[in-house]
Amino acid sequence: MAFAVPVRHYKPFLFEGCPLVWLKRIAVSLVVVLVAVFAVLRYQGVQRLAAYTGGGLARPLPDAARWAGQSCTVAPMQVLSYNVMYGSAFIEAMAARFKHGETGKGELPWSVRLPEIRARIAEYNADLIGLQEMGTAADVAMIVPPEQYSLVSYRQGSVEYADSALLYRTARFEQLDAGQLWLGNDPELPMSLGFRRLSMIRYVNWVLLRDKASGFTFLYANTHFDNAGVNKDPSSLLFRARVAGLAKQMPVIVTGDFNTTAQEARYQHIIGANVQPPLLANAYSLAHNPPVPPQLHPDKRIDHIFVGGPCHVEADNWLLDTRPLQNGLPMSDHDLLTAQVRFF
User: Fold this and answer.
1) Average pLDDT for residues 66-82, to the nearest whole number?
2) 169 in helix, strand or coil?
3) Are residues 314 and 167 both part of a single domain?
4) Does the residue 84 lie in any domain?
5) How crowded is residue 57: how many other Cβ atoms within 10 Å of its Cβ?
6) Can you give the pTM of this predicted structure?
7) How many CA atoms lie within 13 A of 18 on its CB side?
8) pLDDT band at residue 198 under the 50/70/90 scheme
9) Which residues form the Endonuclease/exonuclease/phosphatase domain (predicted)?
10) Are 94 and 309 in contact (CB under 8 A)?
11) Would you give the end-to-end CA distance of the chain in angstroms?
């Protein structure tokens, strides 16, 4: 007697409950995710999505020709630039949580240094203030009184990035326009990465101001160049083309940590030395100051105050404040820089 043995047909599978069709779907999903990640890294997809869904691209710099030929009569302006070193409550909180309070150089926490930084800045009673390494508007307000100064920095929704925050005395100036120029391959793309992929985000912060008493109109810009040469060199060329170039037709004041000394080739790009006279001049070279010690000379420093434009311009009281905290420890890894600028 013959018996029929049933033959079972099994669908191919990798393991129980995972047929091949599902494996294919997982593989396709992984490919899609990898492509999306590549797009974000290569084409800054997150920034583009934010820009094209409401944030918008960066505002264009002013048309300098509109301000050509204006009167140069204006009272002197006290200008201050200071890289405060990690001026962020958020960075301090992260350092306290994950690094035993260390932010990388063994310096005192921001909250400890903050009161003396606030007092030091107040000493100079500046009209224009450029800060570097700030975190948010709240951090800035802790060292520069918001009732006296107006702040310009990048903010879109809940995202704040005040690394190159600038402030102007509200009672003296009227703001006509403001924006950022992003130091990367996409200068108009907010939060654009640097010229090298996954670089630190850097920008030139600018504001168009009118002196209320005289009507004198000028551009004030503040910046913080990256410390990697692959980003600094192209940043200097972009700065020359977009910012220093405005000085051909309108008055310009610039503060910042350029991570560049006057002895480096990129410094010549920054000041527009390919034309004579250069588009921008270092305030130190215009000041009637006694000589400073070699270690304080701006040729060896990376923080600068630049001025330029069709008006005559002079500077007085150029000063690099090297005083430490009262306990003798560094107030920052940079020194406060200030000068009085006069257009006429």
Assistant:
1) 96
2) strand
3) yes
4) yes
5) 15
6) 0.87
7) 7
8) confident
9) 114-334
10) no
11) 119
Confidence of residue 34 (pLDDT cuts 50, 70, 90): confident
136: in domain: yes
Does 174 share its domain with 36? Answer: no
Torsion sign (Cα): 160, 306, 316, 69: negative
What are the residues whose beta carbons fall under 8 Å from the beta carbon of 130, sequence distance 6 or more?
79, 80, 81, 82, 164, 165, 166, 222, 223, 255, 256
Model pLDDT for residues 156-165, shown as the tens digit of each residue: 988 999 999 9
Residues, the chain: 344
Integer Cα distance of 169 and 174 in angstroms = 9
Q: Is the distance from CB of 308 to CB of 247 less than 8 angstroms?
A: yes
Preceding omega of 277 cis (within 30 degrees of 0): yes
Phi, psi of 214 (to 5 degrees): -115, -20
CATH no. for residue 217? 3.60.10.10
Confidence at 13, pLDDT banded by 50, 70, 90: very low
Model confidence at 306, pLDDT cuts 50, 70, 90, reads very high
280 shares a domain with 252: yes
Cβ atoms within 10 Å, residue 201? 17
247 and 208 in contact (C-beta within 8 Å)?
Answer: no
β partners of residue 316 = 340
Domain residue limits at 24: 11-43
27: left (phi over 0), alpha (psi -120 to 50) or beta: alpha
**Residue range 303-316: mean pLDDT, rounded:** 97
Number of domain units in the chain: 2
| 34/117 same-domain check | no
Tokens describing residue 268: 């010549």
pLDDT of residue 136: 97
37 and 182 within one domain: no
Same domain for 15 and 117, yes or no, is no
Same domain, 213 and 82: yes
For residue 12, give the amino acid letter: P
Q: Is residue 148 in a domain?
A: yes
Kindly state whether residue 5 falls inside one of the protein's structural domains: no
Q: Which amino acid makes up residue 150? A: S
- pLDDT higher than 50, residue 31: yes
**Are residues 235 and 110 both part of a single domain?**
yes
pLDDT (average), residues 128-132: 98
Place of tokens 């630049």: 306
